[in-house]
TrEMBL record:
Its main location: other. This is Protein STRICTOSIDINE SYNTHASE-LIKE 4-like. Belongs to the strictosidine synthase family. Residues 155-238 form the Strictosidine synthase conserved region domain. InterPro entries: 6-blade_b-propeller_TolB-like (IPR011042), Strictosidine_synth_cons-reg (IPR018119). It is found in: Vacuole. GO terms for molecular function: hydrolase activity. It comes from the Eukaryota. The lineage of its organism: Eukaryota, Viridiplantae, Streptophyta, Embryophyta, Tracheophyta. Keywords: Glycoprotein, Vacuole.
Length: 367
């Protein structure tokens, strides 16, 4: 009996120590529950599964590593940032060029300026401008604090750059902790190239991700990934300065969003949680447990690799059509989609190629 009591006491002490470790030394603080979120109760796609993304043409297979975004300039030159630090260019003649090496594994969203320069959001270095003759750091601090986790960027016709900060608390390598904590640490910022000043347009966003300007530049669309929604922020007109819901209850977590030539938008969607494990987001204890053990975080990230989705969204916030790889067979972790000359160019944080999808061969939009 003494042996049993000693073992029981040892187990009890171990459990208490584990609880103390989880609750008091957890990397997240007072997480918000998401019982009614698509994270805990996935929403079905409004359009039937079609696996169209399994038919993509693979560009540069083996040359690029996990490109988060893709941009195409007015001459049709494609730019992609690779995890190995290289920015690659695909020229019209089909040749690839290792253009610049930034020695960075944290390059995310990109855009091409009217001057033909490439703007890169580097989650560690800040907002960068890359030209033929070198690299310029445009923004590395905001209001005296280091700019961290710059995520996506778009240029307005006046040269202003609007860009998102996914989280002011967690860095790129710990992004899943932001989702688990579910507190709004994201921002939407504006860089003025004339004054070199950066201002905060929106604060307290839920993992601010993709940013896009409407065709008439009357409003911005900003994606909140773990909220499975997108906001519309008015820049002009009677609603100037106001913010409203643009999309909500999406069938996936919105990543990058890009304006299409016809004025609609292409929105990349991610699978936020593995099937059957969404209940984690409905329990504070479970959130702390997962956050405290990196191996469990990797299990939760597993849902990202199960499928890929991209939606074409109208200016009224309605989904027009969707393409997917419901099995994650060819594409998964799809993070960006850009339309150029009737083709969709696709980037993935878990791929070694850029996907190219000929749009004219696909079915007409669903009304």
């Amino acid at each position: 009996m003494g042996w049993f009591a000693a073992c029981s006491s040892l187990v009890l002490v171990g459990l208490v120590a584990l609880v103390v470790q989880i609750l008091y030394f957890s990397p997240i603080q007072d997480p918000i529950l998401l019982e009614n979120s698509p994270l805990s109760s996935p929403i079905a796609s409004p359009i039937p599964i079609n696996n169209k993304l399994q038919t993509v043409i693979k560009l540069g297979e083996g040359l690029v590593k996990d490109p988060e975004d893709v941009s195409v300039d007015k001459d049709g030159v494609l730019y992609a940032c690779s995890r190995d630090g290289w920015i690659l260019r695909l020229h019209r003649n089909g040749s690839w060029e290792h253009w610049k090496n930034l020695h960075s594994s944290t390059m995310l969203g990109t855009t091409i300026t009217t001057q033909g320069d490439l703007i890169v959001c580097d989650a560690d270095k800040g907002l960068l401008k890359i030209k033929e003759d070198g690299v310029t750091v445009l923004v590395s601090q905001v209001k005296g604090s280091k700019l961290s986790f710059a995520d996506d960027v778009i240029e307005a016709s006046d040269g202003s750059l609007y860009f998102s900060v996914a989280s002011t608390k967690f860095d790129f390598h710990n992004w899943y902790l932001d989702l688990l904590e579910a507190r709004p640490h994201g921002q939407l910022l504006k860089y003025n190239p004339i004054t070199n000043q950066t201002s905060i347009l929106m604060d307290n966003l839920g993992f601010a991700n993709g940013v896009a300007l409407s065709k008439d530049e009357h409003y911005l669309v900003i994606c909140e990934s773990w909220k499975y929604s997108c906001l519309r922020h008015w820049l002009k007109g009677e609603k100037k300065g106001k913010t409203e819901t643009f999309l909500e209850n999406l069938p996936g977590a919105p990543d990058n969003i890009n304006l299409a030539p016809d004025g609609t938008f292409w929105l990349a969607l991610l699978q936020g949680s593995p099937e059957g494990l969404g209940f984690v987001h409905s329990s504070k204890i479970l959130k702390h447990v997962v956050a405290s053990f990196p191996s469990l975080i990797e299990v939760m990230k597993g849902g990202l690799y199960k499928k890929a989705m991209v939606a074409n969204v109208g200016g009224d916030g309605q989904i027009i059509r969707m393409f997917d790889d419901n099995e994650g067979k060819v594409m998964n972790v799809l993070t960006s989609a850009v339309e150029f000359e009737d083709h969709l160019y696709l980037a993935s944080l878990n791929g070694n190629f850029i996907g190219k999808l000929p749009l004219p061969k696909l079915a007409a939009p669903t009304n």
